[in-house]
Design a protein that fits this description.
Blueprint: E1 10-12, E2 19-24, H1 29-36, H2 38-46, E3 56-60, E4 66-72, H3 81-85, E5 94-97, H4 105-115, E6 131-135, H5 138-159, H6 167-180, E7 184-189, H7 192-195, H8 199-205, E8 215-222, E9 232-237, E10 239-243, H9 252-255, H10 263-277, E11 283-293, E12 305-306, E13 314-315, H11 323-336, E14 341-346, H12 350-356, E15 361-365, H13 368-380, E16 385-387, E17 405-406, H14 416-425, E18 433-438, E19 442-443, E20 453-454, H15 459-470
Parallel strand pairs: 1-6, 2-4, 2-5, 5-6, 9-11, 9-14, 10-11, 13-17, 14-18, 15-16
Antiparallel strand pairs: 3-4, 7-8, 8-11, 12-13, 15-18, 19-20
Helix pairs in contact: 4-5, 5-10, 6-10, 8-11, 10-15, 13-15
Length: 471
């Protein structure tokens, strides 16, 4: 497995004396400064410290060393996860604690850990001393580390360039996760995909170099308390390791960040690992269709009609709408397992970003109860998701003159994220509930706690929802 890009900077308490960090809301500033003494008031006035979100006031002791830190959380007084993500980047190297904090320690630990992420695999200077948060509660530390490590796995995979993150590398990571958790893994590769009836995955990936051949990866796991009758959860992730657009080639600006087009597979692996490590009372299937949408003499062409595992024929109107093709075969495979719940994640459409921007992730489901559970978890975890409609009025835009459906909807429908979800719905399992998430997996701007590059999205909310259901 690729090495973690940076340490998750939360640690168990030891004999050292960490520097206390006091969280201060704007409404509490006067009282906090009174408690801290006249030096703190003078420093706050000189530095214009108003306890706005992300502001830091460092107070030295008589020996000149930092004695305490005041950290502004703005108007928030209860849930300050967002502010805490910025904390690690604003502290000097050393150990810190959050004494007598009104913030739940699990939120504080996770916010700090996620905000401390850095991707420096390709930099000569690595391992510089940094700020670390000391956690007294072993259970809180263990769970925060689990979630932060899962998020770091997804981010590392997405950040890693395509020359080092091809189909084989995703398979290797999946194998290590499976072996570490006592799961079974099967891999179908190259032309064997045709023999095993995964024709759409093969069509998308057949133009890639032989060592980057397409494959279908399947992990099967069962919790220690689960039985054959326990619910089966299917997690599916789009694994396009690089997307040129195929013969409908992308412009250079559109191709620049296409190393991240395997973000759905990275997220499915991260969420699957969380489920296994938490030993939820379920059976789990992680299904990863992996391919490179390359250009060569045997690349699929606009106008081709492809077979699919479901038996439906698909007219290729645009070779750059390839993600939904590989997901179609994976969703059909999931249906054969008769899951109670199927979740697919994919960096699927630019239209999702036009609708909701890079930070809010749209999800689609016909199950109102599931949607309500996900929305609650998203709010509680500060992991923003927004339900979008599976609007039946747009289904006709997928009609083809010569095949059962086509992968590029008619322009009149306009809503590209919705029509992509409607395409996937045609292949989704008929048993249980199905949900599709159109993730971005990326931070386009650099800010404290959110470095530019890969971002883990939706997995914290989905994990919280699954834990609430199946613990």
């Amino acid at each position: 497995m690729i090495e973690p890009s940076s340490e998750v900077l939360i640690a168990a308490a030891d004999a050292s004396s960490p520097i206390p960090v006091h969280l201060v809301a704007e409404a509490e500033l006067d009282g906090a400064l009174d408690s801290a003494g006249p030096q703190a008031k003078a420093l706050a006035e000189a530095g214009q410290f108003k306890a706005r979100s992300g502001q830091v006031l460092t107070i030295a002791g008589a020996d000149g060393r930092t004695e305490r830190v005041l950290f502004g959380i703005g108007k928030a007084q209860t849930f300050v996860f967002t502010a805490l993500r910025a904390l690690s980047s604003k502290l000097a190297p050393g150990d810190y604690s959050l004494p007598a904090s009104s913030v739940p320690m699990d939120q504080a630990a996770l916010g700090f850990a996620l905000g401390s992420y850095r991707f420096d695999r390709y930099k000569q200077e690595r391992g510089k001393p940094r700020a670390r948060l000391v956690i007294d509660d072993p259970a809180v530390l263990r769970e925060a580390r689990r979630i932060a490590h899962a998020a770091a796995l997804a981010r590392d995979m997405v950040n890693t360039p395509a020359n080092d993150m091809g189909a084989l590398q995703i398979e290797t990571i999946a194998r290590e996760i499976a072996e570490a958790n006592g799961a079974r893994i099967t891999v179908i590769e190259g032309d064997v995909l045709l023999e095993e009836n995964y024709p759409a995955i093969h069509a998308v990936g057949r133009a890639a170099a032989p060592h980057r051949a397409p494959r279908m990866i399947e992990i099967a796991w069962r919790g220690s308390t689960a039985t054959d009758a326990s619910p089966l959860i299917a997690l599916i992730g789009k694994g396009v390791v690089f997307d040129t657009g195929g013969l409908d080639i992308k412009p250079s600006s559109g191709m620049r960040w296409m190393k991240k087009d395997m973000g759905g597979a990275a997220h499915a692996l991260a969420l699957g690992r969380l489920v296994m490590e938490a030993d939820l009372a379920v059976r789990l299937a992680v299904l990863l269709p992996v391919a490179e949408n390359a250009i060569a003499g045997d690349a699929m062409r606009p106008g081709d009609v492809l077979a699919s595992r479901a038996g439906l024929t698909i007219e290729v109107g645009n070779t750059d709408a390839e993600g939904r093709l590989i997901l179609a075969d994976a969703l059909t495979r999931a249906g054969e397992l008769e899951p109670a719940l199927t979740i697919d994640m994919a960096t699927l459409t630019g239209a999702a970003r036009v609708a909701l921007g890079p930070e809010v992730i749209p999800f689609f489901t016909a199950d109102d109860a599931l949607a309500a559970e996900v929305e609650t978890a998203a709010t509680e975890q500060a992991d923003p998701l927004w339900r979008m409609p599976l609007w039946a009025g747009y289904e006709a835009s997928l009609d083809s003159d010569i095949a059962d459906l086509k992968n590029d909807p008619d322009a009149w429908a306009q809503a590209g994220a919705v029509t992509a979800a409607l395409f996937l719905k045609r292949f989704a399992p008929k048993s249980g509930a199905w949900m599709h998430l159109d993730i971005f997996a990326w931070n386009s701007r650099n800010r404290p706690g959110w470095p530019s590059g890969a971002e883990a999205q939706a997995i914290r909310a989905l994990y919280a929802m699954l834990k609430a259901r199946y613990s």
